[in-house]
Amino acid sequence: MRRFAGFVIKEFYHIFRDYRTLLILFGMPAVQLLLFGYVITNEIKDARIAILDPSKDEVTRRITEKILSSGYFILEKNLSSYNEIGPAFREGKTTLVLVFGKNFAEKLGREGKADIQILGDASDPNTANILVNYASGIINNYLISINIEQVPLKIIPEVRMQYNPELKGVYMFVPGIMAMLLMLISALMTSLSITREKELGTMELLLVSPLRPIQIIVGKVIPYVALAFIDACIILGMGKFVFGVPIQGSIILLLAESILYISVALSLGILISSITSSQQVAMTLSLVALMLPTILLSGFIFPIENMPWILQWFCQIMPPKYFIIIIKSIMLKGNGLTYIWKETGILVLFTLAFILLSVKKFKIRLA
Amino acid sequence: MTNNDNIITVKNLVKKFGHFVANDHLTFEVRKGEIFGFLGANGAGKTTAIRILCGLSYPTSGEVKVAGFDIYSQRDQIKRNIGYMSQKFSLYDDLTVYENIRFYAGIYGLSRKEIESRAGSLMKRLNLEDAKDKLIRDIPQGWKQKLAFSVAIIHDPKIVFLDEPTGGVDPITRRQFWNLIYEAARDGITVFVTTHYMDEAEYCDRVTIMVDGKIAALDTPPVLKKKYDAANMNEVFLKLARVKVEA
Q1: What was the pLDDT predicted at A345?
Q2: Which structural domain, as residue segments, surrounds residue A35?
Q3: Yes or no, beta carbons of A208 and B84 under 8 Å apart
Q4: Which of A139, B40, B94, B97 is 20 to 30 A from B6, comparing alpha carbons?
Q5: Contact indicator for B82, A208 with CB cutoff of 8 Å
């Protein structure tokens, strides 16, 4: 046991003497979270809008007012003819144009319907789509509000977005970043630290010593379990206190699942280092084989349901996918283990499979 | 055990990598307390053999006993009784001299008190006391080599295996290094050393010359020189290697 303790202490020395590692370990979660939380956001505020309003009556003014006071739009300019629409878009500032029909209020009053045209700048399709939805939503709300006074019977759907009422992007990014960073730190760092010993030749010395191979591996892994766990707490803490992402379910369950996921990543790191003996290769493998799939194929940013079936199949073998499901379920829905036992089981299976494979590899190398 | 004076016995050791035979029926004994040289050109199978003796690799077939223990079934006992130093002088660059000593002493299970006293006398012997808190990456190559050797025998093993310990080191440092080896041998540690420097063969009590995975000769340097009518070990080696090529 004393041997083992000395070994773990040595590992901590390595980590704390390498300021780059430290920077990655503790700087990255904060920076990533801030970046994803503030920069990459699907909510659009202050979009520039141009309005062509030939009617200029009470109703069009009310609608314009509603749109401009929503917080989503700022008036770029008032247009006076159709010919100005093209140039307005081409200038690049205006992303949405609202065109009212002629005699808007009068038509609405007499025929019960009036024309409104919404033009979006679809050179950026996502933004255009979102803005068009915002604008039509506001207009519909207005119509409903004036209809209430006139029509006695009416079905008004009341929409509520369960678990994320404001549709905040951070709710999605906190679990995603946690899955990505824990995977990266655990797998990359352990595979680097093991291959480093191989490159230095110290691995042979360790193998010749009375330390058992399992002790060497576990000793290498323990510091990273601790550090990755601290990272998990940083991410959860920042999510809660900086971005206001709630933790509805049990924190203990959440942390336990995080440790399980960390073990998956660590065993993957061990597997990587048992395949290769150079730090360079280990780094490339970890980054290419882990980072990109974690971002793209885990359902973190892009919904898995919309992918071609081959990719969907690939997604099934991505451990982060299951972890993201688990943390979302605990954090946002407040679920207990009864709802996520399947995903938890799959993560356990992943860990066992990776460890088994590494042990097999390790034996082959010794023979 | 056939002979109590033998600390290593190897019978018909064979190691194959696919079709390549790295060790072809090696049979030899190493006596307690001697400096046993394992010589040969690069690729002659020295490192393969030393790795098997250290338990870093399994033989394909053959019988091997180290310090009286069987390498198939008693690895743990062997590990406690041997020291090992490779050509890379494996110390940790980002740890200090003292931390390296403490770490290696620690994984061999020495108590804190023992570590203190042994580290102290070791640094004194190597004149490294002033460098105690220096990082390994900041000390000269020659020092690293001597330190690596001293660390390899810090737990007083019965045998120490040195795999090309003098590679890439200047002649003066090599000479000093051999003084350390003599000291260890005087303290009763059996030294098993591989090298491709033939002048170093003269320092050994007995040498084995490996050619193409086989043992071409095994005896004391004076006997070998006489037998092959050579002025030095280099000539002995060249003659042996040539016979091989002609055959």
Answers
A1: 96
A2: 2-40+168-366
A3: yes
A4: B40
A5: yes
